[in-house]
From TrEMBL:
Keywords: Hydrolase. Belongs to the metallo-dependent hydrolases superfamily. CpsB/CapC family. Its EC number is 3.1.3.48. The keyword Signal does not apply. The keyword Hydrolase applies. It comes from Sphingobacterium thermophilum. This is protein-tyrosine-phosphatase. It catalyses: O-phospho-L-tyrosyl-[protein] + H2O = L-tyrosyl-[protein] + phosphate. It is an enzyme of class 3 (hydrolase).
Length: 266
């Protein structure tokens, strides 16, 4: 029995799907996902990307800032590889006459590989001059604050992806304040408000929400299992109300997307 049948009963399955339509439209833009095909641990093909986009679109997202990993030795993406995948997906969307808009950027791991990208001003920047960064889940990067400063020196605004998922901060909440005081923004993974990543991650996410510390929201969608879990979250949680404690900037990116699309990864 699928999720909707369990939650609502067979008779209400169709109705329940209708109830989910557009529930996340107030966010306008998904700022973090792995929809570009075949270049990291996200979508494996253009067809898969189209299906995932279809599912997210039904929830209300119409614009996507695509952020594949740039991770030294694991996902060694460059502007060129990202641009190639972006053009393939963009072309497929055009063939479908889709009104969905995508924009290429990246999720930069703070590792040895990010240093030359900063030195050459070769980061994959999101619309509005934001740069998405992440750390290992296993250990804190000692270069975090230096990386924040270096990105700011280039005139960009660093955004730390899913801070709630860094377990080593769960018992040192002051670190989140230090990161924000350094001028780094924070992005929530929507799945984190459930127990998808575990109880401790959910607890951290809710605490950060209540403290008004998030600036952006993303799906961090990789595959159809994430999509199904996201649908459950939307069905179970009052997402819009939960985000009211934060000044969420996703909708402010709309004008930037229009302005920056012509120079994407240029």
């Amino acid at each position: 029995m699928n999720f909707f049948s369990r939650l609502f009963g067979k008779r209400g399955e169709a109705d329940s799907k209708v109830r989910l339509l557009g529930k996340l439209a107030f966010l306008e833009v998904d700022v973090h996902n792995h929809l570009l095909p075949g270049i990291d641990d996200g979508s494996k093909s253009v067809d898969e990307s189209l299906e995932l986009i279809k599912g997210l679109n039904s929830l209300g997202f119409s614009k996507f800032i695509c952020t594949p990993h740039i991770m030294d030795g694991v996902h060694p993406n460059t502007k060129s590889t990202i641009q190639t995948a972006y053009q393939a997906l963009k072309g497929a969307l055009a063939e479908q006459n889709s009104k969905v808009e995508i924009f290429p950027a990246a999720e930069h791991m703070i590792d040895d590989g990010i240093v030359p990208l900063i030195e050459r001003d070769n980061l994959c920047v999101m619309p509005g001059g934001y740069v998405l960064i992440e750390m290992s889940y296993l250990s804190e990067s000692k270069a975090l604050f230096q990386t924040i400063k270096d990105i700011q020196k280039l005139g960009y605004k660093p955004v730390l992806a899913h801070p709630e998922r860094y377990n080593y901060y769960h018992y040192n909440f002051n670190m989140y304040h230090q990161i924000r005081d350094a001028g780094c923004l924070m992005q929530l993974n929507l799945l984190s408000i459930s127990r998808y990543y575990g109880v401790e991650v959910k607890s951290a996410a809710l605490t950060l929400l209540k403290s008004g510390m998030y600036d952006f929201v993303g799906t961090d969608l990789h595959h159809d299992r994430h999509l199904a879990a996201l649908q459950e979250v939307v069905a179970k949680y009052p997402v819009r109300d939960m985000l009211k404690s934060c000044n969420i900037l996703n909708p402010t990116l709309l004008d930037h997307i229009k302005h920056d699309s012509s120079k994407a990864l240029g």
